[in-house]
Amino acid sequence: MIEIIGIFLLSLGASLFTIRSIIIVARLKKLYDTPTEDRKIHLYMTPNLGGIGIYCAFIFSVALLLNTQTVPYLTSMIAASILIFAVGLKDDLVMVAPNKKFLAQILAAFIMAYFGNIRITSFYGIMGIYELSYPVSFLVTILFSVYIYNAINLIDGVDGLAGGIGLLAAGTYAVLFWMLGYHADALIATAFAGSILGFLFFNVTPAKTFMGDSGSLITGFVLSILSFKFAAISQNPKIYFSAAPTLAIAIILIPLFDTLRVFVLRIMNGKSPFDADSNHIHHRLLNIGFTHLQTTGILLGTNIIIIALAILFQPIGNTQLLLFLFILAILNNVFLWNLSRKKGEDATIKFIKNTNEFKNEKLNQ
After folding, report:
1. CA distances from 14 to 55, 60, 249 (A)
2. Cα–Cα distance, 191 to 62 (Å, whole number)
3. What's phi and psi for 107, nearest 5 deg?
4. Would the N or C end of the chain have less CB density within 10 A of its end CB?
5. CA–CA separation, 289 vs 217, rounded Å?
6. Do 82 and 55 touch, CB atoms closer than 8 A?
């Protein structure tokens, strides 16, 4: 337990120190994220380099306190993370073409699959599929990795949301891995949780900094590794979590499902799935009238409930549990859609009413 506390405090302290310094430098050099696009929600120029602090604190902690004997995939993780972090940071500063970003993400996923041996080797009975051949395992791992990277990136739209999801997921994995005896993986998760928590001190409303693509992509990168590692423990007959793969999905279900929903809607509307818009779940909550902090709280609270349900219903198996979570996510989105639409109709009726009252007042004069 002392290792958990030590690596958490080290990553937290490093994150607080680094991000505070980055904010000062960003303000002096005027390195801001300017709200020039309609889909951007923030109103003021804000530094978006918080990901530097998250990444530096995380790598510093794991490189100092862990080694390849306890974490065999450590060097592969560091190598791949440098690639992800570099392309994210460049995109924060000068923009990067989407094809180059995807190439960097694919290479990072390949490094983890080939050199780190972090792969999806089975579907664990989901849709009747079990063991995957080596080439298929590689392809599936890369596809799911890139999907997770971008799901976290796309959910990063309001203060504290991406960071909160990252903290919740990493903290949950830290507890689960430690309870199940996978201490090395628990230390990785704890180090990242400390790094994210340090960032959140500067990201809650009003945000002093954003994590940027460098932070959101590295968050997706680390969570993909933890998810694949946790899913694999279901192959251990001594482990209670018989539906561990679906629990891994549940831990980050909010960004995973929201990205899928948005992509499907864009395709149905004849657009590219990668066209930016304001149709994410956090946009809907903001449109209803919730603040940034309330939106983040609602989504994190929902995610906690989903995780609890996934743990509670482990005995029903992967396929049934995944179907249950999918239906739950659809119902939640239908509810928000109707609520958002009613809010819009009420606003339209109020506008028409006020306009008519104004016209009548002018006629009476």
Report:
1. 10, 8, 30
2. 7
3. -65, -40
4. C
5. 29
6. no
Query: Distance between CA 213 and CA 152 in Å, rounded?
Result: 10
> Taking the model in full, what pTM does it have?
0.87
Distance CA 151, CA 257 (A): 9
Peptide bond into 206 cis (omega under 30): yes
pLDDT digits (tens, 9 = 90+) for 79-111: 999 999 999 999 988 888 889 999 999 999 999
186: tokens are: 């628990």
Question: Can you give the residue ranges of every domain in the chain?
Answer: 2-348
Q: What phi and psi values does residue 33 have, to the nearest 5 degrees?
A: -95, 105
- In 3-state terms the chain splits into helix, strand, coil percentages (rounded to 5) of 75, 0, 25
Helix 244-251, helix 292-312: angle, nearest 10: 170
DSSP 33: B
**Cα–Cα distance, 363 to 351 (Å, whole number):** 18
Q: Which residue has the tokens 């506390």?
A: 5
Return phi, psi of residue 114, to 5°. -85, -55
CA distances from 43 to 157, 158, 187, 344 (A): 13, 12, 38, 22
Q: Determine the Cα–Cα distance for residues 158 and 181; give it in Å rounded to an integer.
A: 36
Q: DSSP label at 218?
A: H
What is d(CA 315, CA 320) in angstroms, rounded to the nearest whole number?
Answer: 10
3-state secondary structure at position 53: helix
Q: pLDDT, tens digit, for every residue of 99-154?
A: 999 999 999 999 999 999 999 988 887 878 888 999 999 999 999 999 999 999 99
In degrees and rounded to multiples of 5, residue 21 shows phi and psi of -65, -40
User: How many separate helices (H) and strands (E) can be counted in the chain?
Assistant: 13, 0
pLDDT for residue 256: 94
